[in-house]
Amino acid sequence: MRSQRIRFSHDSRIPRTCSLIAVLASVSLILVGCALPLEASFESRQEYVNKHNLSGDVEEAILAGRVIVDVTREEVEATWGWPSETATLA
Fold first, then answer.
1. Contact by Cβ (8 Å): 63, 45
2. What H or E segment, with its residue span, contains residue 18?
3. Angstrom distance (rounded) from CA 3 to CA 36
4. What gap in Å lies between CA 81 and CA 39, rounded to an integer?
5. Which of 9, 23, 25, 40 is deepest in the core (most CB within 10 A)?
6. What gap in Å lies between CA 49 and CA 9, rounded to an integer?
7. What is the 3-state secondary structure (H, E, C) of 44-87?
């Protein structure tokens, strides 16, 4: 007696489409979370500028909430604030 193979007819595009949608949704959520810094308030930026002797460009950028090239980590934190949470991605 020979064994017979049973073939199921199904559209193999459906599982790939679902997987693609799941991957895109996951990536979108990760990017949105990374793109939204917890911005420091204008008052806290103004206070930082008043307490530190900064060059004109750096002072303007901090007050406007922008990060420019060659600022220190402390100046970035004064501009954008500290993240509410962090995660390590493997």
1. yes
2. helix 13-35
3. 59
4. 5
5. 40
6. 68
7. HHHHHHHHCCCCHHHHHHHHHCCCCCCCCHHHHHHHHCCCCCCC
